[in-house]
């Protein structure tokens, strides 16, 4: 009986493996091929008690091809949305253009940095030129600038846009500062004196320096998000904060993940009226930039 089970197991193993290869070669349906390979691997485990190395390698290969296919499809969608956005912007259909650029950002995220960066710039420019929403303009232009640091090579177009974004952000900040000076002091009550704020900031800086030396990067980021959640995310949903807690900090993706966190703590994105938060965000950004330099 045992020999019969082993014979049947070997036959099923061969059948599943052949089906997987044939499906992959004939149709390119990676999901179906993986399904048969997993059935194949299960049979081998039942017979031998261990996984088959050949099947394991094939599963790894097909999963890699699957990721490459998915990235290519996502990039094509992103480029299509970006192109539609360009056409709509030329027609002065700014809301529709904005929606298309935002979809392009979503599709290109973690797929193609240059496309994501260009669309962040275009969204920032639309908010600045067409909608006069200057805080949103800064948010997206800062994201654009930070994304350019992930590029191995900056094209002339990217370099020109970087300089343009700096001028726009500088102009908006001067305008905000001018408006703040003209306004009356904030209506919300002062919870602490200037001296108390300075002492609190000193304690926070000390705490940050101690923890960054002791904790793993992922744990340090988790601490930041829990203890000092970014104020610029008040208009974002909580799902975005949760997703940041799940960022990957291995050697390959640490730099990209750190830049993503920096985008939310960047001083240019913080409300000017909350001076203490602005100072805390500046110190957090400094610490994160120090970590980032180790991965350049």
UniProtKB/TrEMBL annotation:
Stretches of the chain forming a coiled coil according to its record: 191-218
Record-linked SUPFAM superfamilies: TPR-like
InterPro entries associated with the record: TPR-like_helical_dom_sf
Alphabetic keyword roster: Coiled coil
Protein name: Uncharacterized protein
Organism per entry: Stylonychia lemnae (Ciliate)
Species lineage: Eukaryota, Sar, Alveolata, Ciliophora, Intramacronucleata
Encoding gene, per UniProt annotation: Contig5930.g6354
């Amino acid at each position: 009986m045992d020999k019969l089970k082993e014979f049947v197991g070997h036959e099923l193993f061969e059948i599943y493996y052949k089906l997987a290869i044939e499906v992959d070669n004939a149709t390119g349906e990676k999901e179906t091929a993986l399904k048969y390979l997993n059935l194949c691997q299960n049979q081998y485990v039942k017979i031998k008690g261990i996984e088959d190395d050949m099947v394991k390698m094939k599963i790894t290969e097909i999963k890699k091809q699957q990721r490459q296919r998915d990235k290519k499809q996502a990039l094509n969608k992103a480029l299509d949305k970006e192109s539609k956005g360009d056409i709509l912007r030329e027609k002065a259909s700014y809301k529709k253009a904005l929606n298309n650029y935002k979809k392009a950002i979503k599709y290109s995220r973690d797929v193609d940095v240059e496309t994501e960066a260009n669309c962040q710039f275009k969204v920032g420019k639309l908010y600045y030129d067409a909608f006069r929403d200057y805080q949103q303009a800064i948010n997206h232009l800062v994201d654009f600038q930070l994304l350019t640091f992930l590029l191995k090579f900056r094209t002339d177009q990217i370099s020109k846009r970087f300089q343009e974004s700096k001028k726009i952000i500088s102009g908006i900040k001067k305008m905000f500062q001018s408006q703040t000076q003209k306004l009356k002091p904030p209506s919300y009550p002062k919870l602490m004196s200037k001296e108390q704020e300075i002492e609190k900031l000193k304690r926070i800086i000390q705490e940050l320096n101690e923890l960054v030396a002791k904790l793993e990067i992922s744990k340090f980021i988790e601490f930041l998000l829990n203890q000092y959640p970014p104020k610029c995310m008040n208009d974002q949903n909580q799902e975005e904060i949760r997703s940041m807690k799940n960022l990957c900090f291995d050697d390959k993706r640490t730099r990209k993940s750190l830049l993503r966190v920096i985008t939310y703590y960047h001083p240019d994105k913080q409300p000017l009226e909350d001076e203490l938060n602005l100072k805390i965000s500046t110190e957090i950004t400094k610490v994160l930039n120090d970590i980032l330099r180790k991965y350049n």
